[in-house]
Specification:
This protein is an alpha/beta fold. It contains seven helices and six strands, in the order E-E-H-H-H-E-H-E-H-E-H-E-H. Helix 2 crosses helix 3 and helix 4 crosses helix 5. Belongs to the universal ribosomal protein uL4 family.
């Protein structure tokens, strides 16, 4: 698949041949759904449990007399009615981590990239900015016709000037190629890849 390469300001900068095994896969909704669900569930923190009467360190010895004290008979300080006792019907530990076959995760990422390659993919030669200012970057996006939510993916590390300029733009997120994931790719309207990111992603799947 051949696509046009442009500079960050929208000017033409040649063509690039995208690998069809990465950017030409037919998307399947069931695969993308499984991968997105797996990602979001793994982002959830473990629900903390409360300590019940079997979890607290309290004496089990009978305290007080059986009769004559004017109070109810108790034999365990861990009962919920006592200070320092266990919680009655407390929250249980819930771990939301899911497992997903590595082949399915890889296929899902290829499908997400392929869906953007059909509609909403912009390839730029590099993400270096002469004027690393938010206002300047906004002007470049307007010239290039980039609008809505934008995800920018660079090579091994994102250029610091570009990252700082994009930090104040609403709806613009920046990731290195190693951090590319299905959820972030699909939730953005436009995907911008540097030529270095294209090489890293293709090498990631074909290396």
């Amino acid at each position: 698949m051949k696509v046009k390469v442009q500079k960050i300001d929208g000017k033409a900068s040649g063509d690039i041949e995208l690998n069809d095994t990465v950017f030409g896969v037919e998307p399947r909704a069931d695969i993308l759904h499984r991968v997105v669900t797996w990602q979001l569930e793994n982002r959830r923190g473990t629900a903390r449990p409360t300590r019940e009467r079997s979890d607290v360190a309290r004496t089990g010895a009978k305290h007080g007399k059986q009769k004559g004290g004017g109070v109810a008979r108790h034999g365990d300080r861990a009962a919920p009615i006592f200070i320092g006792g266990g919680k009655a019907h407390g929250a249980r530990k819930r771990d939301f981590n899911q497992s997903l076959n590595k082949k399915i995760r890889t296929l899902g990422l290829k499908m997400a990239l392929s869906s953007k390659a059909k509609d909403g993919l912009v390839v730029v030669d590099s993400l270096e900015l002469k004027d690393a200012k938010t206002k300047a970057l906004m002007g470049h996006f307007e010239k290039a016709g980039v609008a809505g939510k934008v995800l920018v993916i660079d090579g091994e590390a994102v250029n610091d000037g570009f990252k700082n300029a994009a930090a104040n733009l609403p709806g613009v997120n920046v990731l290195p190629a190693a951090g590319a994931n299905v959820y972030d790719i699909l939730k953005h309207d436009t995907l911008i890849l540097s030529k270095d990111a294209v090489e890293k992603l293709e090498a990631r799947f074909n290396g």
